[in-house]
Amino acid sequence: MTPNIEGPLDANGIKVALLVSRFNEQITSRLLAGAEDCLERHGGAAEDRTVVRVPGAWELPQAASRLAASGRFDAIVALGCVIRGETFHFDIISLEAARGLSDTAVRHGLPVALGVLTTENVDQALARSDTSGNKGWEAALSAVEMVNLYRRLG
Fold it and tell me: What CATH number does the domain containing 62 carry?
């Protein structure tokens, strides 16, 4: 039988940095609430979570790199929201935030979950940060699974 290696969805003892953009705070506060709810429902303790706020999505990779280098966390959950406007700015910010967070994860060997919404309008952002289908929740769950998978992989 082929071995199947997976990370269980148990947040007990996992130290998580919840990295949150203040830009579009109406949305990011809902993503944060979803992420915290997920961690709590999966056995994570409040004292194992640290919320770090940055100005916007552009700053997420910068702070994530510092958090990863600190050695204090098992995972980082990056939460932000970039809503398309009338200029190319949306493309630059969303692509560079994703690239920077991915680079941080690979460079530091630390799970960095991407909970950055990239939407066409506020209604789409609200739908993705609602209590059903909250992308902050999904990002936190991904981080938990990846931490436990890394532990099994050695």
Answer: 3.40.50.960
pTM exceeding 0.90 = yes
Q: Is residue 154 part of a domain?
A: no
Domain that holds residue 85: 16-148
89 part of the active site? yes
Q: What is the 3-state secondary structure (H, E, C) of 35-89?
A: HHHHHHHCCCCHHHEEEEEECCHHHHHHHHHHHHHHCCCCEEEEEEEEECCCCCH
Total count of domains within the chain: 1
CB distance 78 to 64 below 8 Å = yes
Q: Which pLDDT tens digit goes with each residue over 71-114?
A: 999 999 999 999 998 888 889 999 999 999 999 999 999 999 99
Among 41, 89, 107, 152, the one annotated catalytic: 89
